[in-house]
């Protein structure tokens, strides 16, 4: 029996049955399943138990909270009761907001999203984030860790620089992961699973390259095997 790979499969499914089926297929191969806005807004808290299933796989709740500190604290407290292993907030919400989430959900790792991986350098410039994305990612990472975030979400292209900024103890989570030659779809700042891992990511978020496959279990197993080759 091999150790599950450090992959969070994004269960971005249109319905609960599909999400639970995908979770069942991938959990022998991966450490984590991720529930995002699509499922949570449709089904609410029940979705967590459904995808956790009998395997008890770690659940990552990707709600990307972004509001005033009092509101984020209340939201983090509410979902913290569901015991997700990880909950996301936007780092751009600022120190007080991140700290409020950390204090409100003490049994969940708060992961601050630096810059969405769907944004290109040109997109970022249009919203006032000029220059190389890595500079803003590092700045946001430092703010988030200073506010108590135990994890960060960043592009695999920026993960080495973010690691240099925050040190070895912070969990670095990278979406924007595509196997070589795969369609990047709406992702802009991407890398392969092997590169993300070798650049220092602790947990790779992968959705459609697995769930869009005819056999999600086999797709997850294939990427997990490729990652094992990198780490040996
Ligand atoms: O910067 C971010 C933050 C979160 N995500 C989420 O990750 C998955 C990626 O899915 P793919 O199908 O592999 O593109 C998705 O749930 C996003 O909401 C992100 O992509 N980028």
Automatic annotation (TrEMBL):
The keyword Electron transport does not apply. Pathway: Pyrimidine metabolism; UMP biosynthesis via de novo pathway; UMP from orotate: step 2/2. Residues 6-223 form the Orotidine 5'-phosphate decarboxylase domain. Keywords: Decarboxylase, Lyase, Pyrimidine biosynthesis. Signal peptide: none annotated. It is an enzyme of class 4 (lyase). It catalyses: orotidine 5'-phosphate + H(+) = UMP + CO2. Its EC number is 4.1.1.23. The active site is at residues 62, 64, 67. Substrate binds at residues 12, 34, 62-71, 117, 178, 187, 207-208. SUPFAM superfamilies: Ribulose-phoshate binding barrel (SSF51366). Catalyzes the decarboxylation of orotidine 5'-monophosphate (OMP) to uridine 5'-monophosphate (UMP). PANTHER family: OROTIDINE 5'-PHOSPHATE DECARBOXYLASE (PTHR32119). Belongs to the OMP decarboxylase family. Type 1 subfamily. This is Orotidine 5'-phosphate decarboxylase. The gene is pyrF.
């Amino acid at each position: 029996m091999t150790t599950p790979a450090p992959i969070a499969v994004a269960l971005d499914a249109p319905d609960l049955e599909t999400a639970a089926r995908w979770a069942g297929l991938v959990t022998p191969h991966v450490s984590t399943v991720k529930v995002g806005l699509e499922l949570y807004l449709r089904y609410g808290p029940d979705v967590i138990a459904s995808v956790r299933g009998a395997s008890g796989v770690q659940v990552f709740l990707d709600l990307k909270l972004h509001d005033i500190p009092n509101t984020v604290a209340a939201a983090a407290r509410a979902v913290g009761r569901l015991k997700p292993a990880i909950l996301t907030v936007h780092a751009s919400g600022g120190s007080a907001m991140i700290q409020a989430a950390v204090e409100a959900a003490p049994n969940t790792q708060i992961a601050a999203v630096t810059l969405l991986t769907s944004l290109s350098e040109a997109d970022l410039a249009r919203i006032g984030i000029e220059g190389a994305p890595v500079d803003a990612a590092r700045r946001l990472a430092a703010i988030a860790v200073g506010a108590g975030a135990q994890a960060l979400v960043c592009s695999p292209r920026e993960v080495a620089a973010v690691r240099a900024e925050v040190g070895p103890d912070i969990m670095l989570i990278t979406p924007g992961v595509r196997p070589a030659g795969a369609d990047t779809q709406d992702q802009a700042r991407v890398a392969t699973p092997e590169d993300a891992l070798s650049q220092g990511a602790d947990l790779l978020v992968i959705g459609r390259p697995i769930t869009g496959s005819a056999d999600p279990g086999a797709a997850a197993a294939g990427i997990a095997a490729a990652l094992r080759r990198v780490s040996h």
